[in-house]
Design a protein that fits this description.
The chain has 255 residues and is α+β, with helices and mostly antiparallel strands. The chain folds into two domains: 2-107, Nuclear Transport Factor 2, Chain: A (Roll), CATH 3.10.450; 127-241, Nuclear Transport Factor 2, Chain: A (Roll). It has helices spanning 2-18, 42-54, 130-146, 153-156, 173-181; strands at 33-34, 59-68, 71-80, 82-93, 96-106, 163-164, 191-202, 205-214, 217-228, 231-241. Strand 7 and strand 8 form a beta hairpin. The chain is globular.
Length: 255
């Protein structure tokens, strides 16, 4: 079931490139809940979107794809005239997907340490440690990103082996500490995490979905972590501004 669902979502996302409306057959139109505020509800909304995007000769690359229970989540590259990086999440009931979330931002970088927003390991390992890794990341987001207990950074991260893919931040613990504590080192951006809405995991990869602000602007944060021996060793992310409610094309909310 897990492999089949991943294949179905891969075909769906590749439908953005081909414009193939048959790729949306994995969606249950009677139950489908769309959380992208800029997309109309249901499979018909996606089919229309795919047709429109296909006219711009888009390119789609699924870099990583994982599953967690009834959820499939993917880390993706898109080229719609401009290059973008995204995370896509789908919830299944049986053979069909019934709910979708995403977070997409323009590609930036490379990082000060030379990494792109998507390079690095792609295959999940340590499947027997999924729940332990989920709780490690949950605690990190709560302690560090939401409540700002930066004195606990060493509890979660070893200085010598932390790879950062955020285009504004270099590798290692000092660079991360500086970015979290000093807006001047983060291109002047003040980032605030208010709440974590969801956490998904497969093996050593854990994705969190959080809400907050960038310079006071309502924003959504999707953060992917790789965990090794109880420590966070790698991080990828996307940040997207949440549009005002008056601009939403559905009423389901971002989260």
């Amino acid at each position: 079931m897990t492999s089949k669902r991943k294949d179905q979502i891969s075909a769906l996302l590749n439908g953005i490139e081909t414009g193939d409306v048959a790729s949306v057959a994995v969606i249950n139109p009677e139950k489908y809940i769309q959380h992208n505020p800029q997309t109309h509800e249901g499979g018909e909304g996606l089919a229309t979107l795919f047709k429109r995007l296909a006219k711009s000769s888009p390119r789609v690359n699924i870099v990583r794809i994982f599953s967690d229970g009834d959820f499939v989540f993917a880390h993706t590259e898109y080229d719609f005239h401009t290059s973008r990086i995204g995370f896509e999440i789908f919830r299944f009931e049986g053979d069909l997907t019934v709910e979708h979330w995403d977070n997409i931002q323009p590609r930036q970088g490379p990082s000060p340490s030379g990494h792109t927003m998507v390079d690095g390991p792609t295959e999940a390992t340590d499947l027997n440690k999924t729940e332990n890794n989920r709780e490690i990341v949950r605690s990190f987001v709560d302690d560090i990103l939401i409540t700002g207990q930066l004195e606990r950074l060493e509890h979660y991260i070893d200085d010598g082996c932390f790879t950062e893919h955020n285009p504004r931040i270099g590798d290692g613990l000092p660079a991360l500490r500086s970015a979290l504590s000093d807006p001047a080192s983060n291109e002047g951006s003040t980032i605030k995490y208010d709440r974590m809405h969801r956490i998904l995991a497969e093996g050593n990869f854990v994705l969190t979905i959080s809400e907050g602000s960038v310079n006071g602007v309502h924003s959504s944060f999707f953060d992917l972590f790789r965990v090794d021996h109880g420590k966070l060793v790698e991080h990828w992310d996307t940040t997207e501004t949440v549009p005002p409610r008056s601009e939403w094309k559905n009423d389901n909310g971002k989260y």
